Amino acid sequence: MIKKQKMKLAFILVLFSALLFSLVFLIGAESGKCMGCKVIGKSFLDSYTLGSRFDTGKIYFEGKKVPSDEKWERIYISQPESALDSFESLLGELSSEEYELYFINDGPLKDIKGSVKGNMYLSLAAIKGKEYRIIDVVITTLPVMSIDGSFAYKNEEKRDVLAGELVLFAGADPKTDTLSIKESGLEWHVRGGSSLNDNKKPYKLSLKNKGDNYDEKFLALGSDDDWILNPMNRDDTDLREKSLMDLWNKYIAADGKNFKMSQGEYVELVINGEYRGLYLLQRRVDRKYLQLDKEKDILFKGRPTWEADTAEKAYEIIYSPFGEKETYDIARTHLFSLSAKYYNTDAFVDFSIFFNYGVITDNSGFKNMYYVLKWNGEEYSVYFVPWDVDISLGVVWKNDNFAYDYEQSMNVYAGKSEYSKIKGFMEYNKQKYGTLSLEESINKRWAELKETVFTAENIYEILDENKETLEQSGAKIRDKKLYGLYYKGADTVTRLYDFAKLRIFKLDEFYK
């Protein structure tokens, strides 16, 4: 009898434990909220059937249509790194008038930081009636730019211009670390030269408000109506251009002796419901960006050519307060002539060292270079502003194509085409006034800059920051899955770091 009672008691305890476990499971199955959506266990969906494709365009983040890849039923949400501690700490709210939204309490949801870095998707259950679909949710620490629109007209270059709307979701807005959403009307078109044939296109953006140009401040890059989306096609590390921009702007142009080159921030791009990958959102180089005098200063851009027999064929007028004929007359005198008397030689020395350090051979001719004619009160001084520095630090032009060749690039000493005439001018001044020659000026300046600018510590700090930004976001994984590697594994981050450091020693030997 006692034995039966003990067995009965044991059975009751087992049953109670099972009920308690079930209760705990059910409580755990629906616990907390993530971006305004309840968190549920997978068993919650057992009473629903898997439906046909749902429209991700019916899902909103903070009241705005969420950036989504409709083909893959995948949405992209920008968050600051500080919000990745747990799913409860993610900022903003997801909503839909069409669907009920729930997050599935699975592995990726339990480790948000690891999921973001490893490109693991959160699972969002969208329910309509008795049907459900699982939507992939990509959390990224990069800003996400969403563009929607359609064909509007053909421009003077016979390129299709599209018109629509732009929304920039920035969970990692530099200088803030808070969620930011910016909107604007927009016209955009494909830009560029050789990159036009690539799958990943470069774009020019023109912000509009009721048809008029509209300035907007994006990502602590300043306020402008014209922007560029750079696909970084020729760089498998996605570090070269931004890191060289940061090096120039932070160290060489910081004292005001040189003009800033374009600056940019990484973003992920979605156009018309299709994910387009990792881009660099950049400022255009123009009068406003360089803060030129509207009444006096002139800005040219070198045309995409290596040879030209007239100033008109060599330079495009970006800004001038004068008429076209007068502007090109000034170009003939100050830029296209054999004389280098108007060049700011101190600025050219800094540019030459930067140019040589990066082995930016694609900028040696007219193309990929801006020319500022700055009025100093008596005459113009000519400055070079670097542009389009993707062919650098190991990337070369070889056998009529872009290639990665570490040894070839390391053993090249790059010089701008104007070098020889500036050298002759400074040699004349040395003979007449006892000033330094170009080589002597560069050698002297290098001795200063190798201690203050071109140090492994400075350069690695810039590379590390940009590398960490990309790695934490998971964006490189997504981008390379979409487009692959241009140089088939030859161009690696490790080799870039090696090159960046060893190039310092190479130049030290050269300038000695």
Beta-strand segment tally: 27
Determine the fraction of residues in helical runs and give it as a percent range: 25-40%
What is the overall number of helices? Answer: 14
Whole-number average pLDDT? Answer: 92
Estimated share of beta-strand residues: 25-35%
Poorly predicted parts: 9-29
Please state the CA-atom Rg, rounded to the nearest Å: 29 Å
**How would you classify the helix and strand content by structural class?**
alpha+beta
The protein's oligomeric status is single chain
What is the molecular shape?
Answer: elongated
Q: Could you give a short account of the major beta sheet?
A: 8 strands, mixed
Give the domain tally. 3
Rounded to the nearest angstrom, the distance between the terminal CA atoms is: 102 Å
Polypeptide structure, described:
- By secondary structure, the chain is α+β, with helices and mostly antiparallel strands.
- The chain is built from 14 helices and 27 strands.
- The termini are far apart.
- The chain folds into 3 domains: 27-138, no CATH class; 144-236 and 258-280, no CATH class; 294-511.
Summarize the SSE layout with pairings.
Layout: H1 2-29, E1 33-34, E2 37-40, E3 49-50, E4 60-61, E5 64-65, E6 68-69, E7 74-78, E8 94-95, E9 100-104, H2 107-110, H3 112-117, E10 122-128, E11 131-140, E12 144-154, E13 160-170, E14 180-190, E15 203-209, E16 212-213, E17 216-217, E18 223-224, E19 226-230, H4 240-252, E20 264-271, E21 274-283, H5 287-290, E22 298-302, H6 311-314, E23 315-319, H7 324-336, H8 345-358, E24 369-375, E25 380-386, E26 395-398, E27 401-404, H9 406-410, H10 419-433, H11 438-452, H12 456-473, H13 475-483, H14 493-511
Parallel strand pairs: 2-9, 3-11, 7-11, 12-20
Antiparallel strand pairs: 1-2, 4-5, 4-8, 6-7, 9-10, 10-11, 12-13, 13-14, 14-15, 15-16, 15-19, 17-18, 19-21, 20-21, 22-23, 22-24, 24-25, 26-27
